[in-house]
Amino acid sequence: MSRRLIQSKENPRLLKLEQELSSLKAEIRNYVQQEWYPVENGNRVSQESIREAVKEFCGDGFPLSEFREDVTRYVQMSNNHLPIDDFKDFMSGYTNSLAYLQCAEYLHLRKLEMEIWIEGESAKGKQLQHELSSFKEKRLCSLTKFWYPVSPKDGKRRTDKSIRKSVINYCKNNAISILEFREKVINDDDMSSHELPLSDFTKFMSGYYDPRDVVAYSRCAEYLALEIIRSKIRSVKQQAEWKKRKREEVNDENEDPRKISKHSKLVKRSRVEAEARALVDKIAAVPMTYDAATIPIFEDCDIIRKKINNFLFATPGLSTDYFMKAIGCNKLKWTSFNCAGKGKGSGGKSVVYAAAYRFFEQKRILEKLPKSQNRLIQEKRWASNVTRFSPNGGYERRTVKENQIGIRCHGPGAPCAVDIFVDIDVRRDKYLKRKREGKLYSFES
Question: Could you list the residue range(s) of the whole structural domain that residue 84 is in?
Fold first, then answer.
């Protein structure tokens, strides 16, 4: 087979991939934000119609100010931003696009939810639930200022969970850490923007993701989409190079460089995973006086969650499953603890809390590091706190929160309970102050 014939077979494929890469980069850079507006019977609903619908919804006994507060608190809204000045201008007869779209979205969501509640579990009710989810997704996409990937199967926007899973798989296959992945993203010349704040990226990868904040989501999705095409281009070029060397008979024992590259990646991945597991096992083997059930804890839940996420991100090849198994827990308990929300006492009853604290104490002892300033303060504050939740002092192994009843956030006259996580350090200081002053009640002692 002649050299010209081989080139004619290889070049069209390479040219097609390069054109596909250029088209994707142009699509990302020239992305235009989608427009959404309320439609009824195929026609756009006017601002005057929405204004009258708001007045009809409120009636005589529900002030417009409370209607605006419900819009800003309604959890189903794609965006809760509605300044009072914009709302007043809109209801006074002036044109205001922000208030118009917010009020239209709120009224439509309320209408769909009421119809779903009436229909129940019937076929029409399920159809309405599907319509509700589609409407929320469409409205959310209209607020997205950055490019987002679309699934080739159903044409819908890829979820943040699928992008997060793809990032983890990419890091696992290339034997790099999550933080090294971020460095690749911000240093890639093909990216439309190099903006990827570390705080947004860690929140996205930890699951604390607000769909309205799409910077980390878009950057990760953009890099993965580009990397898929670039990997195919590299594969085609490697195959062409191998065939060229084989034709010239430089070495009869040449192998396909794609197989060599894949084998080297697997070897590197296995080596990195082995090193990560050896490190975890070495830390877990450090002897301690207390086990996880009795050790006094002097760091709150927020600090432990941050330490776990940072350790997983900074250790290439370490899976969450193996780390949780090493400290005597499982991934399901870690998910529950990690998603318990913010708060120093949020998630205190989880077994991950005490087990992870003990692990990081072993790590500190192994590395011969001194106690932090915060640790010394908490020892002074919590050392005498000996209860059934903390048998040897320290923070208590229970979730500490208070309930506030009567906040209206699901509609007019509909009270609900809202969990408010208190600052347990401040509460402990107040308790110690009353104890020093001799003002404790019998049930507090």
Answer: 39-142
